[in-house]
Specification:
The chain is mainly alpha-helical. The chain has one domain (6-102). Helix content is 68%, strand content 0%. It contains five helices and no strands. It has helices at residues 6-29, 37-49, 66-71, 73-76, 80-102. Helix 1 (6-29) runs antiparallel to helix 5 (80-102). The longest helix is centred in the first third of the chain and has 24 residues, at 6-29. The N and C termini lie close together (9 Å). The model has no long low-confidence stretch (mean pLDDT 78).
């Protein structure tokens, strides 16, 4: 129904570029401290090292399901900043993919 509607595609691209711009600005401005990716990262690294994942250096601890730490292991093989950027751009890619399927 919407496959050939150029105005909707333009709106989707504007949303995508706003999202990418927000991600880049926000995370570089906050020095990568305002994301939960670090919690997943450290929990995955602890899981790989055989350490308990629910006792980490965060004041609140790791309060997610253990499956999320296990599924995050491929991302934890990279350094933390690269992991955060890869995770964010993967999210943007899936946003673009979903917008492309809708429009």
């Amino acid at each position: 129904m919407y496959k050939n509607n150029k105005s909707l595609m333009l709106a989707a691209l504007i949303v995508l570029f706003l999202e990418v711009g927000f991600i880049i600005f926000y995370h570089f401005h906050s020095n990568f401290h305002r994301t939960v990716v670090g919690e997943y990262f450290h929990a995955s690294r602890d899981w790989l090292n055989g350490a308990p994942i629910y006792i980490i250096e965060s004041p609140v601890g790791f309060n997610y399901f253990i499956q999320s730490a296990i599924l995050f292991i491929p991302f934890a093989l990279f350094p933390l900043r690269a992991c955060i950027l890869f995770w964010l751009f993967l999210n943007v890619y899936f946003l673009w993919l979903s917008l492309n399927l809708i429009v």
